[in-house]
């Protein structure tokens, strides 16, 4: 009986913690950071197509989008880090929730903020750049949905694993290098997968461009793969690679142990 009464109480307490003034500051920070990230990433893709209509066969266009992704993610993560954690990505939020770093109600509010921001950024681009179509993420003809999901999952695993490492206080204060590392792994992943799956790693970004572009084909690829990859990364980092029980886990030894 007591356990049955505790569950609703805990859920109510967690929900109340998710609707405080500080929580709403976090949601606003996520909205703003995600908006500017999606605006830069989708906008860079539109700019590449404007300068070179045959963008699919031009390697320089891939480099442009990868650089924009890396720079935008580094900047937006840094700007929101001390407020919301700088997730800027529903997959990162999911990975943090699975690892127990944020509550489920808070994660859901993060998702709403991120998805609304992505849709809004894509709509602004569509309205502002009348002559350009907002291109949704697509997979290459030689790729299957399953293969694209695996690729997106692996890339998101690397991204979320880097986010965990950058935010690990056992490594010392984050400083500037954390967001830069996060941006680097994102940019590298775009270079590796852009021609095949688009290199999204971000369900909100894929959803926002799909809403504005009017096509939800293969949209599941950009949700299933990243969410699974994010969950595995969070669980692996916290429970296997750097478990919290190890005081000096970075060097792989236990402090105070000697012969």
From TrEMBL:
Belongs to the MIP/aquaporin (TC 1.A.8) family. TIP (TC 1.A.8.10) subfamily. One of its GO terms (cellular component) is membrane. This is Aquaporin TIP5-1. The chain crosses the membrane at residues 27-48, 60-81, 108-131, 143-166, 172-192. It comes from the Eukaryota. GO terms for molecular function: water channel activity. Keywords: Membrane, Repeat, Transmembrane, Transmembrane helix, Transport. It is a multi-pass membrane protein. It is found in: Membrane. PROSITE patterns: MIP (PS00221). InterPro entries: Aquaporin-like, Aquaporin_transptr, MIP, MIP_CS. The keyword Repeat applies. Pfam families: MIP.
């Amino acid at each position: 009986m007591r356990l049955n009464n505790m569950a609703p109480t805990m859920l109510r307490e967690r929900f109340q913690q998710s609707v405080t003034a500080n929580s709403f500051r976090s949601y606003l920070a996520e909205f703003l950071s995600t908006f500017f990230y999606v605006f830069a990433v989708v906008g860079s893709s539109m700019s590449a197509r404007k300068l070179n209509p045959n963008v699919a066969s031009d390697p320089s266009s891939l480099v442009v989008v990868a650089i924009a992704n890396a720079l935008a993610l580094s900047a937006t993560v840094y700007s929101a880090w001390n407020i919301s954690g700088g997730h800027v990505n529903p997959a990162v939020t999911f990975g943090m929730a699975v690892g127990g770093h944020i509550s489920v109600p808070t994660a859901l509010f993060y998702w709403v903020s991120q998805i609304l921001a992505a849709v809004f950024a894509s709509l602004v681009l569509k309205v502002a750049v009348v002559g350009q179509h907002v291109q949704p993420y697509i997979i290459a003809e030689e790729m299957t949905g399953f293969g694209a999901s695996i690729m997106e999952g692996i890339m998101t695993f690397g991204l979320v694993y880097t986010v965990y490492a950058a935010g690990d206080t056992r490594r010392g204060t984050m400083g500037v290098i954390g967001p830069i590392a996060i941006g680097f792994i994102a940019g590298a992943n775009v270079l590796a997968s852009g021609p095949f799956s688009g290199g999204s790693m971000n369900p909100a970004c894929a959803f926002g461009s799909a809403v504005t572009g009017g096509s939800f084909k293969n949209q599941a690829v950009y949700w299933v793969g990243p969410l699974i990859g994010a969950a595995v990364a969070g669980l692996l980092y916290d429970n296997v690679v750097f478990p919290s029980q190890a005081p000096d886990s970075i060097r792989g030894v236990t402090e105070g142990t000697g012969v």
